[in-house]
Amino acid sequence: MNPSMKSHDMTTTNPRNHPTSYRHKLNAALTACALVFALTIIAPGPALAQTYSVIHEFTGGPLGANPVAGMVMDRAGNLYGTTFTGGAGTCPAIGISASGCGTVFEFSPSTGRFTVLYRFTGGTDGAYPQAPLLIAPDGTLYGSTVEGGIQSCTGNYGLPGCGVVFHLQPRPTPPPNATANPWLETPIYSFSGLDGNGPLGDLAMDQSGNIYGSTVIGGLHSYCCGVAFKLTPSNGVWSESTLHQFSGGNDGVSPYGVTLDPAGNVYGTTFQGGNDSRGIAYQLLAGSGWMENQLYSFTGGSDGGEPVSGVTFDSSGNLYGSTFTGGSGGVGTVFELSSGSWAFQLLYAFTQNGSDGGGPFLSDLVLDQAGNVYGTTEYDGAVGGGSVFKLTPSMGGYTYTSLHDFCTENPCPDGLSPTGTLVRDSSGNLYGTTQLGGANSGVCSGSPFGMPFGVCGVIFKITP
User: Fold this and answer.
1) How many secondary structure helices (H) and strands (E) does the chain include?
2) Residues with Cβ within 8 Å of residue 74, at least 6 apart in sequence
3) What is the tens place of the pLDDT at every residue in 101-157?
4) Within a 10 A sphere around the Cβ of 250, how many other Cβ atoms?
5) What is d(CA 71, CA 366) in angstroms, rounded to the nearest whole number?
6) How wide is the angle at C-alpha 200 spanned by C-alphas 198 and 203, nearest 5°?
7) What are phi and psi of 55, to 5 degrees?
8) Among 454, 412, 324, which Cα is nearest to 23's?
9) Does the predicted TM-score (pTM) go above 0.85?
């Protein structure tokens, strides 16, 4: 069997009965491989006086299309992200996405300047980036692609290669011509299947410059369940060590990204597996041979199930995360795991077909100093095309506020189907991407389904 990690399946029928909305979904082959209400129930609050604006539209072709992973911000306030398709190479269009193997881009909110830093070719350099970038202390970038790399390995979308982790840095001299990439890309590790297949989710770097991450499939256990890995540099060469081989049992199936605590322990979630096969939150202990501790096993009931996002620490060491399914509405939850005891606390349950959205997907939560929690949902919301939300601590529970709801009508100039983690700057502005939508009329207008609006996605800003 050739397991497939994800299907970038953008269809015209939402699985929750929203026509003309879209969705990523985990491929059925992955499932075959292994695959209450909040503490205080508070009605969604009224929308705040937020200002939403589209600050860039993707147009497909060499400029990229369909950003999936969100963005990261450097100290100067510049944003960096990836597009799943567009750019260069011969990678075919998937669903209604654009052709091309994906790009890495830079965007300056202060000037509006958009620059494509690198265009993937689909060869050993990688293809189809779907994970957030990592900014190193020296300002260079690390990231991953779900395909490309070692050509003898079969990828998840039919291309050669099981994915790469790459390093991206500015050229020491100007590009030789106008079509050349302004930054240089170096694949630092290519996966071969038994060591993992399809790196996805957050990468993390420790103080020694080692990089940690996970793959959603691959590994020794029937090639299905994924691995957590560490990449160590030595004299310019990177070596991989597998920290944990997920077996498909109580230890989890299909991990999504990692984060580190100050002691160097690794934390993350898995999509499935666990006591009830609905996913877990886990810890890998650095001082104990990377022994795995199951911090929480989701039941798929009121607590939620099938997390497809990473976890976020607050200043007290508590972990925050979300699930894609389960909860009282069946469409996902937001939760907290208390530091030390890792006791589970339900913060919010989304409502099916409700105005509060549903199904946070590939979107880590963002916290501010006041304890507010920010995130995105891929669909539902007041208009049906997803939402940006804020959860505010209130009287022992959390109040839900919609910061923006995305449409599903023709056209959707404000964007459609936000995935990926938000970025919050020092002034409280939020930045994010939608994988679809936009008002452009270039490569991205129209589709095999004849929709007369942009399908390449946008970058947006929400001001407080």
Assistant:
1) 1, 33
2) 80, 135, 139
3) 999 999 999 999 999 999 999 999 999 999 999 999 999 999 999 999 988 887 777
4) 14
5) 12
6) 125
7) -110, -10
8) 324
9) yes
